[in-house]
Design goal:
The chain is mainly β. It contains one helix and eight strands. The protein has one helix spanning 7-13; strands spanning 17-21, 26-30, 45-46, 59-63, 85-90, 93-106, 121-127, 131-144. An eight-stranded mixed sheet has the order 2-1-5-6-8-7-4-3, with no helix packed on it. It starts with 6 loop residues before the first helix and ends with a strand.
């Protein structure tokens, strides 16, 4: 069971939620879409076309750098496989997702997201110099924290 983030931390950091991937020891906060800190050069980036996890059939789209350096938050995503669990902590709930699909695309500055629009989705992306990898995860359940 992943460690619960104290709710007081949200008020001091400005994060509105956290991404938890225990398989790769990732526990990183993210900011509101409108925040100046919502920047892939500083943090996990939340796409302006996203919806938050509490929207049924919505899609939380997040991206981060891989590679080296302090901002390579998604450097270990390559270790994930279909069936792995990814959690999002948001508004006192843990949203538990399972990875359903992983695919690569040519890096063009845009991304095509192939998902079941009848399901609540988490989409994570990272890239190298030529390609970007897309991880599609569907909401399995949610629980109070």
């Amino acid at each position: 069971q992943p460690e619960t983030i104290p709710q007081t931390e949200n008020t001091t950091t400005g994060y509105i939620g956290y991404l938890e991937i225990s398989k790769i020891n990732l526990n990183k906060g993210f900011y509101d879409i409108t925040s100046s800190e919502n920047d892939v050069e500083k943090n996990i980036y939340v796409s302006p076309t996203s919806s938050y996890p509490d929207k049924e059939k919505g899609n939380l789209i997040i991206a981060a750098h891989s590679g080296t350096g302090w901002k390579a938050f998604f450097n270990e995503l390559y270790q994930l496989n279909t069936g792995d669990q990814v959690n999002v902590l948001y508004k006192n709930k843990r949203y538990i997702y399972k990875i359903n699909k992983i695919y690569k695309q040519e890096k063009t500055g845009k991304i095509a997201i192939y998902r079941d629009c009848e399901k609540t989705t988490l989409t994570c992306t990272n890239n190298d110099s030529k390609t970007q990898t897309v991880y599609i995860a569907y909401l399995e359940k949610q629980e109070e924290i």
